Amino acid sequence: MIKTVLYSFDSERSRQIAVTRAESNFRSALNRTARRIEAYRPRVITLSGPSCSGKTTTADTIITRLTEGGMRVRQISIDDFYRENTTGRNYTDEEKKKQDWETFASIDGEYLSAFISGLLGGEKVERPIYDFSVNRRISFETIDPGDYDVFLFEGIQALYPEVTAMFGKNRFKSVFISVASDLNVNGIPFTGRELRFLRRLVRDYRTRGASAELTFSMWDRVVDNEVRNIEPYSPAVDMHLNSMMPYEPCVIRDEALSLLSMIGKDSEWYPKARSLAERLEPLPELDNGYVPEDSVFREFIGKD
Q1: The whole model's pTM is what?
Q2: Adjacency order of strands within the sheet including 239-242
Q3: Rounded to whole angstroms, how far apart are CA atoms 292 and 111?
Q4: Residue 7: how many CB atoms within 10 A of its CB?
Q5: What count of other Cβ atoms lies within 10 Å of the Cβ of residue 88?
Q6: Which residues of the chain have pLDDT under 50?
């Protein structure tokens, strides 16, 4: 059963305290996770979770903690192994709507398998660097596995059996991050999935040039994949993290409202857009300057 976190923000001071408390709790959870990994000394760590859970920032933080403990860690994003757009031109929004970004089939499995086999076999390998703005690999980076004690594979697909099978008999620990709580702010409810949608709405507009219409059109497929390919495997993961921040609707409010207003009345997504907007509008604002620069929530609102 999903827990609902209740918060009441009656002053700016109460919102600032909520930021401090939430960030402190999440840092403590990350530290406990890092200590468990250190004790096990795996060759591979997987960090997975549904869309917009905060995987990238969490991977960076875990690596920092492990490095401070004397381990040499290398992060590898499975996003860099997405299949390329080979049309020679950028996708239109209509073409992007038809892309399946969540399933294992969206990954170049042959490339990833050969990469992992070489990496864990001690060979130098070429990691692709994928640019989502053009949906292509734009360069490659040589990795010498002898420089590292452990490799952290981060991405939605990191817990899929097709991926974990590639690690063979190498020792690995798995971490799963998600927005694992629903939230009620000043009597206004948001599900964990709605919070992740708002994160994605803002992030994808900022970093991937995605319109609000495009984000809405892709979300049902995202959720369907979570139900089919993520939820069945997440209970077996070794360690779980909850990245829900009680303050986040107040911080993301203005940007989200601006994007939601772009959904016209003739759009099939208008009822969902209005439902979110009507719940965001009464919330008190909270300047994003209160959010620490290293916060997991910065992954969605940016550093500015």
Answers
A1: 0.88
A2: 73-77, 150-154, 44-48, 172-178, 239-242
A3: 37
A4: 16
A5: 6
A6: none
